[in-house]
Structures are given as C-alpha cells and as structure tokens.
C-alpha cells in the first residue's frame, strides 16, 4: 500500500456523527463531572457506613440528586458554548456540509413481515465520501478520495464551497494518487502590510522580490511584467503607489505614463518631467525609448566577452527598467490606427523580450480591453491583480479562463481583490493590498531618492 493511501497521514476522517461533535464534547465533560461527584459520594458513604443497604444508600444520596443533575447540565451548557464559540470544530461543519450538499447518499428499504404487522427498515446502500481533515499551523488540509461517484465533479471544485464557508482561501490544490489534496489558509492569518511612515526607506541592491502581503512575494524576474485592474475606488492607485515605492527602493529606473493626467502626473515634481509622460506624443516617445533601451541592453550583453547562456541584466550591473503605464486602455481610445499599431508593437516587444534585459512593463486599467491586452500578451504578464468587484468578463480578461468562483468583495474592503503570480499562484487567490491611508507617499519617495544619491 502506498504511503498516500494510509489514513494516518491525512488527518481525521470525517464521520456522519461528527455533526454532533459539540454535543459529544460537552457530554464528555458533563459525564466526567457526574462520575467524579458520584465517586466522591461513594467514598463518603463508605467512610460513614460499614454496610451496604439500599434504603440507607437512597437516604444518603437523595439530597445530592438535584445538585448532580443541575451541575451536570451547567457543565454541559458551558462546554457546549465553548465548543461553538471558541473551539468551533471544523469537523462538525464539514460533516454538516456533506449532509446539506447531498453527498451522503443512503438507500433504505421498508418491508412488512409476513406474520406480524410490523414494518422493518433495512439499509441496502449507504454512501459517505472519504474526506480527511488535518489541522496545521495557520492552515488546514483536506484530502478527499476520487471515488468515481456522481459527486466527483463537486469534489474536484471543493474550494468553491470551503472558501466562503470558513472565510479562507485556497493555497494549494494537487492530485496525490486517488486523492485530491486541498490546503487552505484562514484570511485572518493573511497579514496585511500597513504603510504608516515607519517603513524602512533604505535602498536595496539586486533584490527583485517585493512583498505584496507578509506571505505573498512577487519576484519580478521570475514572474516579469504586471497588470492591475479594478473599478474606481477599489484601491488600484494606492497599490500602484506601493509598487512604485518598492521599485525605487530597488534602484529601478522608472518611467511613468499617465494619459489621463490624474494619479501620476504630480510625480514630475519628484523625479523630473523627463521621466513622466502625460500627452500622446510624450507617451509614445517614452515607449519608443524603452524599446530602444531594451535593444541596447541586448547588444551590450551579447557583445560582452563575459556573456554566458542564461545571463541576464543582473550579471552586467544593469538596473531594472520599469514602464508604469496607467490606464492603458483609456489611452488607446485617443489613438488613430497607425499610432495604435505603434503602441501595440512596443508593448508586445517589451513584454515578450524584456525580462532578460531587465525592461519590464506594468499596466493598469479599469477594464482590460482584449483588443489592447490580447490573450497571448496577457499570458506573459507574471503578476495579475484585480481590486474590488469586476464583472465575469473583467475577471476573464484579467486572469484568462479559470474555474475559480469569484466571491463578491464588500465595498468597505478597500484594497481587497484577487491575485495570480506566475509559478506560485496560478489560480487567483484573495489578498489585501498594502494599507496606505496614513502614509505620505511623496515624502517617502523623496527620502528613498535621497538615499540613492
């Protein structure tokens, strides 16, 4: 028998009676109290009387009956409340889920005896899924057996039930032999980064990893380029500020393209007007120069005597070069056919080739347009983020075809959305973007830039 077939390594198997586990839990403690008090009374009786007489025993125990019953009930109620409010057995919830989803399939036949007028019930078929539950540190794991039943399609998409049920998110899902393994993390453990002005502004050399949350890390070399989508008020701008701040800390060369002259144009006063573009001509010029920079870097690396297969910009002491293109789809509506073709050529060329040269594209849009961000281009974007609620088409254009069942995000949860990172989170997971309400972005960036100098 293979190791993955041994129940010991999968946790506790969910049983039908687990839906009563809080009653069982409270009943055990009530019984312990009752048995212990009976033991004390018996000990007291034996110390007082030497003989055992029924009448005498009754008289001795009679005053204590009410205390025993009330005491046991009080203990039962207390531990029942503890089980419901503090422990909150997930095993009970899973057993109830199996019942309410109709996964427990039972066939009972009823027969009448020939000689007596009595109905006899006989269970001919009793199906219950083989589901294991295991607690871990800040996570829990489910194993469910792929048994070929008519419920198997539901088992293959169990996260759509479990995530809203336990307010958690799927971290990993993989097939192990005849079992499907799910790993979930409760959202309360997904620590959000809070920007309050006390963060380290020290410049970092050759670090390509950016913390999105305290658990989610984006390595922009392993998962190059990015796309952020979201409705107005969803937190898209603040997330973009955070990314810009972290890129400056990593000594990246940054070009900001702001066709709507809204959220990024003010950065001219901070990093210089030559690095911020907000008109059609300036934006196309910056894209052309970024493309030229990429080609120049390729020539530099290929002509170097130190060049080896697998080298990238870091081996030649080149800084990351980022083009932050805000509201890219809004910009396309202002272009004629020739200008649109020129812009698309630059975007596609940089996204397809830029990683090795260290030239990266970071796009934002309220709604990604399939005519601008085509499927083959979108699939090359290593980081994809949606903030706030999107339509089903919006999610599809952001993340591509996915079986993920997106849960509604409350309007008060600013900065909450979904994220995928190539090679880490290939299916969208819920996350909370860094909180930046009590944070002076401009002053922080100025301090970082002064550190670079």
Automatic annotation (TrEMBL):
It comes from the Bacteria. SUPFAM superfamilies: P-loop containing nucleoside triphosphate hydrolases (SSF52540). Pfam families: FtsK_SpoIIIE. Residues 213-396 form the FtsK domain. PROSITE patterns: FTSK (PS50901). ATP binds at residues 230-237. InterPro entries: FtsK/SpoIIIE/SftA (IPR050206), FtsK_dom (IPR002543), P-loop_NTPase (IPR027417). The chain crosses the membrane at residues 20-39, 65-87. Keywords: ATP-binding, Membrane, Nucleotide-binding, Transmembrane, Transmembrane helix. GO terms for molecular function: ATP binding; DNA binding. The keyword Glycoprotein does not apply. PANTHER family: FTSK DOMAIN-CONTAINING PROTEIN YDCQ, SPORULATION PROTEIN RELATED. This is Ftsk/spoiiie family protein. It comes from Staphylococcus caeli. The gene is ftsK_3.
């Amino acid at each position: 028998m293979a190791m993955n077939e041994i129940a010991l390594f999968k946790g506790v198997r969910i049983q039908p009676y687990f839906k009563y586990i809080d009653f069982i839990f409270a009943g055990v403690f009530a019984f312990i109290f009752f048995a212990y008090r009976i033991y004390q009374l018996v000990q007291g009786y034996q110390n007082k009387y030497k003989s055992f007489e029924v009448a005498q025993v009754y008289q001795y125990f009679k005053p204590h009956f009410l205390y025993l019953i009330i005491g046991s009930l009080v203990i039962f109620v207390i531990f029942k409340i503890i089980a419901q409010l503090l422990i909150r057995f997930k095993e009970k919830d899973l057993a109830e889920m199996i019942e309410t989803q109709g996964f427990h399939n039972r066939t009972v036949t009823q027969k009448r005896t020939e000689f007596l007028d009595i109905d006899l019930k006989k269970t001919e078929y009793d199906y219950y899924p083989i589901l294991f539950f295991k607690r871990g540190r800040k996570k829990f794991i489910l194993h469910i057996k792929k048994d070929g039943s008519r419920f198997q399609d539901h088992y293959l998409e169990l996260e759509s039930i479990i995530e809203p049920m336990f307010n958690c998110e799927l971290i990993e899902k993989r097939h192990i032999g005849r079992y499907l393994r799910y790993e979930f993390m409760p959202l309360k453990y997904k620590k959000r980064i809070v920007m309050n002005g006390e963060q380290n502004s020290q410049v970092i050399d050759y670090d390509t990893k950016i913390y999105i949350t305290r658990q989610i890390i984006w390595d922009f070399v392993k998962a190059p380029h990015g796309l952020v989508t979201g409705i107005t008020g969803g937190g898209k701008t603040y997330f973009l500020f955070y990314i810009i701040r972290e890129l400056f800390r990593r000594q990246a060369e940054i070009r900001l393209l702001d066709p709507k002259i809204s959220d990024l144009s003010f950065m001219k006063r901070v990093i210089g007007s030559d690095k911020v573009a907000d008109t059609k001509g300036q934006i196309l010029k910056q894209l052309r120069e970024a493309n030229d920079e990429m080609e120049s870097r390729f020539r530099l690396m290929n002509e170097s005597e130190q060049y080896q297969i697998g080298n990238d910009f870091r081996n030649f002491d080149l800084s990351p070069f980022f083009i932050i293109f805000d509201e890219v789809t809004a910009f396309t509506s202002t272009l004629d056919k020739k200008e649109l073709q020129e812009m698309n050529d630059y975007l596609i060329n940089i996204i397809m080739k830029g990683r090795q040269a260290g030239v990266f594209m970071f796009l934002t849009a309220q709604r990604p347009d399939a005519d601008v961000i085509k499927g083959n281009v979108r699939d090359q974007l290593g980081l994809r983020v949606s903030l706030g609620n999107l339509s089903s088409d919006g999610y599809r254009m952001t993340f591509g075809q996915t079986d993920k069942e997106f849960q509604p995000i409350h309007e008060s949860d600013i900065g909450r959305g979904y994220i995928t990172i190539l090679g880490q989170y290939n299916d969208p997971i819920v996350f909370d973007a860094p909180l930046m309400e009590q944070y002076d972005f401009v002053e922080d960036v100025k301090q970082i830039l002064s550190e670079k100098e």
